[in-house]
Design a protein that fits this description.
Number of helices of chain B: 1
Strand content of chain B: 5-15%
Number of helices of chain A: 6
CATH architecture of chain A: 3-Layer(aba) Sandwich
Number of strands of chain A: 6
CATH superfamily of chain A: Glutaredoxin
Order of helices and strands of chain A: HHEHEHEEEEHH
Largest sheet of chain B: 2 strands, antiparallel
Number of strands of chain B: 3
Strand order of the largest sheet of chain B: 1-2
Distance between the termini of chain A: 28 Å
Strand content of chain A: 15-25%
Number of domains of chain A: 1
Oligomer: heterodimer
Largest interface: A-B, 64 and 45 residues
Structural class of chain A: alpha+beta
Chain lengths: 103, 82
């Protein structure tokens, strides 16, 4: 998520809101956000309902698989990145910049 | 008597061999289960949600509709890298 913070300016410049999601409590997320210096929202999916709905719940860890969904302005999913690809925001940044150019 | 014992032994063997096969198959299946595909694919509409952020403010996905793209990044645990 640090990588998303580092790329936040580029993402915001291409009209993109970053939302982190973890199954931890808002209190844990607040401490984590402070440690990372993250300025974007980190949402608490306490209980995992959203993680399960999105089909990325890992019962082995009782947590989400590291996944990034890019959702466009119409609410459509336009990119899905998992694992190391989800950690590195390069592809997401490029996709957002392309979308910005089109509009 | 000897013949009956032999028949019994054969019977036990016949029963146990296929079961051993089933056990062996069961063992092969252990280990981490394969990762399922996400419930949605590119082109699908992302279902709306409302969650609480680190400042205990409600954030609703649909509030960005028509205004911004949303990079929705699910992490494994807070305080982990990536």
């Amino acid at each position: 998520m640090k990588a998303f913070q580092e790329n936040l300016q580029k993402l915001e410049a291409s009209d993109t809101q970053v939302l982190g999601v973890s199954m931890d409590s808002p209190f844990s997320n607040a401490a984590w956000a402070k440690e990372m210096g993250s300025t974007f929202p980190i949402l608490s999916d306490w209980g995992g309902d959203i993680t399960k709905q999105y089909g990325i719940y890992n019962p082995g860890y009782k947590a989400a698989y590291r996944t990034t969904f890019l959702i466009d302005k119409d609410g459509k999913i336009v990119e899905i990145k998992m694992d190391s690809e989800a950690i590195d925001p390069t592809a997401i940044v490029a996709s957002c910049e392309r979308r910005k150019l089109k509009t | 008597m000897l013949r009956r014992t032999a028949v019994l032994l054969l019977g036990v063997l016949a029963l146990s061999v296929p079961r051993a096969g089933v056990w062996a198959q069961g063992e092969k299946k252990e280990g981490p289960p394969p990762r399922p595909a996400p419930a949605f694919k590119v082109g699908d509409t992302a279902p709306d949600f409302t969650m609480i952020d680190q400042n205990r403010q409600k954030v609703q996905l649909s509030s960005f509709k028509g205004k911004k793209n949303v990079a929705l990044a699910f992490v494994v645990f807070a305080f982990t890298g990536g």
